[in-house]
């Protein structure tokens, strides 16, 4: 990962985006028709960047996402938006990407309008909880399994984007290595199975041949005994001056 460690390749997030990526523009426009998620945070509809932050964090998240998407594409990684999801293809492997702001769940505080309705004994639905934005931005890949960075006391995510690129790449490489090793093991198991089946087929064929020989030997022994019996009976008949005709047909 020397490439990411080189200061010349540091991903920089500008204070103001002058040439936004098409996905950034599309996402920003989609936020104008946003719906609320379970945390009451705005979510952009359609096939756009997966950004799950409060309204106050929205502009910053878009700037970070814009710089990060451009950096990924410069590295040859394909970024594909989906419905409420974003996928990054690294070495043929798909990795999910989300820009996220955590929130603290606190007891719901009724608004002034809701308080007035309650005072007038009017019906009003009051939820049990509400979510308070943490103000901390997070960049997460595959739910954190393929990399994750979060605003901290020492550094913001803007200063650590190269770090998450390294995490994603390492995860993909580990996955590819594991997949190749699994394929080799599977091939070896198949080879051993084929060899075992071949040996079994040889044993079965040998057993069948032995059984055939035994059966033929048994038949030969029976035929030999029968011939000996008929020969003896014929000799006795001739010695007595008679001829045994009806039993001659059984000779083999």
Helical segment count: 5
N-end to C-end Cα span: 87 Å
SSE ordering: HHEEEEHEEEHEEH
- Calculate the mean pLDDT score and round it: 90
How many discrete domains? 1
What does it look like?
- With 252 residues, this protein is an alpha+beta fold.
- A hairpin with a 1-residue loop joins strand 5 (78-83) and strand 6 (85-90).
- The chain is built from five helices and nine strands.
- The mean pLDDT is 90.
- The strands form two sheets. Strands 3, 4, 5, 6, 7, 8 and 9 form a seven-stranded mixed beta sheet that branches. A two-stranded antiparallel ribbon has the order 1-2.
- The longest helix is centred in the C-terminal third of the chain and has 79 residues, at 161-239.
- The protein has helices at residues 2-5, 22-30, 55-74, 112-119, 161-239; strands at residues 35-36, 42-43, 47-48, 51-52, 78-83, 85-90, 93-107, 129-141, 148-150.
- Helix 2 (22-30) packs antiparallel against helix 3 (55-74).
Give me a quick take on this structure.
This protein is an alpha+beta fold and 252 residues long. The protein is built from 5 helices and 9 strands, in the order H-H-E-E-E-E-H-E-E-E-H-E-E-H.
């Amino acid at each position: 990962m020397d490439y990411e460690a080189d200061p010349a390749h540091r991903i920089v997030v500008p204070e103001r985006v002058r040439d936004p990526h098409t996905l950034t523009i599309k996402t920003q426009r989609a936020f104008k028709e946003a719906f609320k998620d379970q945390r009451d945070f705005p979510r952009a509809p359609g096939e756009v960047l997966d950004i799950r932050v409060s309204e106050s964090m929205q502009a910053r998240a878009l700037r970070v996402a814009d710089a990060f998407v451009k950096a990924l594409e410069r590295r040859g990684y394909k970024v594909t938006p989906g419905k409420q999801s974003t996928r990054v293809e690294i070495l043929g492997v798909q990795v999910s990407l989300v820009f996220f702001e955590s929130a603290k769940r606190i007891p719901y505080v009724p608004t002034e309008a809701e308080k007035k309705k309650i005072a007038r004994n009017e019906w009003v639905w009051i939820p049990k909880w509400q979510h308070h934005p943490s103000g901390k931005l997070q960049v997460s890949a595959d739910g954190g399994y393929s990399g994750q960075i979060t605003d901290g006391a020492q550094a913001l995510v803007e200063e650590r984007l190269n770090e998450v690129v390294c995490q994603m790449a390492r995860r993909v490489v580990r996955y590819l290595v594991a997949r190749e090793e699994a394929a080799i093991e599977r091939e070896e198991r198949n080879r051993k199975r084929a060899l075992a089946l071949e040996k079994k087929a040889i044993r079965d064929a040998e057993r069948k041949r032995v059984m055939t020989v035994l059966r033929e030997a048994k038949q030969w022994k029976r035929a030999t005994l029968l011939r000996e019996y008929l020969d003896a009976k014929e000799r006795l008949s001739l010695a007595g001056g008679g001829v045994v005709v009806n039993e001659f047909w059984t000779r083999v």
